[in-house]
Amino acid sequence: MTKDGTPARLGAAPGIAAQSRRERVREATLTEIKEIARRHLSEQGASGVSLRAIARDMGMTAPGLYRYFTSLDDLMVSLQTDFYDELAETVRNADTSLPPEDIDGRLQASLRAFRAWALANRSEFALLFGPPGPMHPPSPTGPAVAAAQRFASTFFALFDRLLEEQRFAPPNDAETSPTLRRQLETFAERTGYTTENVSSGVLRVMMSCWVRVYGLVCMEVFQHLSFVMDDMEPLFEAELRDILGDVGVAYRAR
């Protein structure tokens, strides 16, 4: 009973419901901030994203945004984290119609989904995979790095299946220079790709495949060949056939 004799309300302890409402308001505000930031990124590139411009669009003061993000870098890292997770989900969902044992089909669907996402989200792709700006040096740790690892793990899992099925013969470690071997091992440590089957030779093959796919997509996203090519898909598919062939995967035309 309360002091005035009315029955006490059952349920959450005092303050919990109010806290829940505050959290919902905070989450809604965070979502709005990032939606506006993404729109500015898409329209103007990374240099066009500023806390002041976002605050103006929201009818807030710039200092008010510091309750949600401590700095512009903090906001950009949050966007990178979201974009990596969005890309990872896109890649994972690309092969849901294929049976788990169809590694050839799933790998090709995933690589094509990566390209499709990049072309549909050029500014977001540039933020993730383009050169870092002077105000946004890359960090070896943090939520964006963890999200990048989640994205990479989708391809690591497929590559592991190729290793299990012995689709290709990786070069001997002795064929890899000590300097390259050291850097490949650093890559494995930072990405979490350190299973017992992964040798320097395996890492070298995987890195070579990724660089070739990534390079093609970058050339297309940033329109580096637009002066000679108005349709990059035939080149992408031709190169994809060669890359897949190097790791024992049967190419399938779209």
Automatic annotation (TrEMBL):
Q: What is the lineage of its organism?
A: Bacteria, Bacillati, Actinomycetota, Actinomycetes, Streptosporangiales
Name under which the protein is recorded: AcrR family transcriptional regulator
The UniProt annotation gives the DNA-binding region as 50-69
Q: Where is the HTH tetR-type domain?
A: 27-87
For whether the record's keyword set contains DNA-binding, the answer is yes
Enumerate the Gene3D superfamilies for this protein: Tetracycline Repressor, domain 2 (1.10.357.10)
Organism of origin is: Lipingzhangella halophila
InterPro entries in alphabetical order: Homeodomain-like_sf, HTH-type_TetR-like_transc_reg, HTH_TetR, MT1864/Rv1816-like_C, Tet_transcr_reg_TetR-rel_C_sf
Highest taxon of source = Bacteria
Which GO molecular function entries does the Swiss-Prot or TrEMBL record give? DNA-binding transcription factor activity; transcription cis-regulatory region binding
Keyword annotations from UniProtKB, A to Z: DNA-binding, Transcription, Transcription regulation
